[in-house]
Amino acid sequence: MRKLLLLIMIPLALVLAGPATAATAVSITNSGFQPTQVTIGNGDEVTWTNNDNANRQVVADGGLFSSPQIRP
Predict the structure, then answer these.
(1) The pTM is what?
(2) In this structure, which long-range contacts are made by residues 46-54, counting pairs with CB atoms below 8 Å and at least 24 apart in sequence?
(3) Using CA atoms, how far apart are residues 1 and 5, in angstroms rounded to an integer?
(4) Element (H or E) spanning 72, and its range?
């Protein structure tokens, strides 16, 4: 009986946990972004790090989103 209960509970727990989210790190340099291109999905997380000497801002093509100023 315990084995049957475990066989039911484990898949149920995986379904209730939902999909895993991915984390992507992007570095801002004086020559651009590193990596230059990333693909993210809905709910994924992107961390922007400004490795330049000036404040930078991330703005989407078309203006869908923009970040506040990111300090070095």
Answers:
(1) 0.65
(2) 47/23, 49/25, 51/27, 52/28, 54/30
(3) 6
(4) none
